[in-house]
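TA notes, week 10

Several of you asked for a full example with nothing omitted. So below is the full record: structure tokens for the whole chain, then the designed sequence directly under it. When grading your own attempts, check the secondary structure regions first.
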């Protein structure tokens, strides 16, 4: 039963975003870590993201039943009551936002609220069911964790916060579209108007390219403005170029499921490696 409740919070998403939040906090700290502030920021961010993920599961449970990837989710199979899940989401959200406003700062609390609003209302309730823009716009919420971590220290939105936002925002569409290409038949059957469903796989592959390509100037600017060191620049440039090369290569292999799976794995490892390198390079 506990595993079902944990599943509602999408722990894999939480794991990646917590690393990003820690990376933003570490970057702004410049080596002088406030342990208490870090702990409260990560807890508040985790609870806020968990709330948004649970609300997403509540709203999508009928559509989840139509896809092999999601039909075993607790709400889709009825192992958890929707009313209980809604209550859980509310408690998580209120607790998370209280911590961010009280233990971090008002800006972090507002950023958390913005992320929740975009993910729950704009992405889940509206665009996910009506528009191919859902993935790109939904990326706003996914880019909040590192900015929250950064602003917990700086208490302001500056170039560092913007570049961290760009790093996550640009990463997300290409990452998700590679998964959507693999599961395009399932998404079509479920009625999700994703880009590969509405515009086709080749068009989706082409649209992934500028997002991955823009990661290159993003990481270069982080180095040029002294937000990171040469190790970060080297690793992130190599990773960005590798991902870009593989994405461009997909133009001639756009019907190859193996390509889509590999591209998805590259994207997951890219984010993990880039943020771990960022942390280690600023140690």
């Amino acid at each position: 039963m506990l595993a079902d409740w944990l599943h509602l919070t999408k722990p894999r998403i939480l794991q990646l975003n917590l690393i990003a939040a820690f990376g933003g906090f570490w970057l702004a700290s410049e080596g002088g870590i406030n342990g208490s502030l870090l702990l409260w920021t990560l807890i508040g961010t985790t609870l806020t993201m968990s709330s948004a993920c649970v609300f997403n599961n509540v709203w999508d449970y009928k559509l989840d039943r139509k896809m092999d990837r999601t039909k075993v989710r607790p709400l889709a199979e009825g192992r958890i009551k929707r009313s209980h899940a809604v209550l859980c989401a509310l408690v998580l959200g209120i607790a998370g936002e209280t911590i961010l406003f009280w233990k971090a700062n008002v800006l972090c609390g507002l950023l958390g609220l913005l992320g929740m609003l975009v993910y729950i209302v704009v992405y889940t309730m509206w665009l996910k069911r009506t528009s191919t823009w859902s993935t790109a716009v939904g990326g706003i919420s996914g880019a909040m964790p590192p900015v929250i971590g950064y602003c917990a220290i700086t208490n302001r939105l500056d170039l560092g916060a913007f570049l961290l936002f760009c790093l996550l925002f640009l990463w997300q569409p290409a990452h998700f579209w590679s998964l959507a290409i693999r599961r395009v038949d399932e998404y079509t059957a479920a009625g999700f108007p994703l880009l590969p469903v509405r515009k086709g796989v080749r068009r989706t592959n082409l649209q992934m390219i500028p997002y991955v390509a823009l990661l290159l100037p993003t990481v270069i600017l982080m180095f040029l403005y002294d937000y990171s060191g040469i190790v970060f620049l080297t690793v992130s440039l190599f990773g960005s170029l590798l991902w870009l090369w593989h994405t461009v290569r997909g133009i001639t292999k756009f019907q190859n499921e193996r390509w889509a799976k590999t591209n998805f794995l590259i994207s997951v490892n890219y984010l993990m490696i880039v943020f771990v390198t960022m942390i280690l390079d600023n140690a």
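The chain has a mean pLDDT of 92. Use that as a sanity check on your answer.
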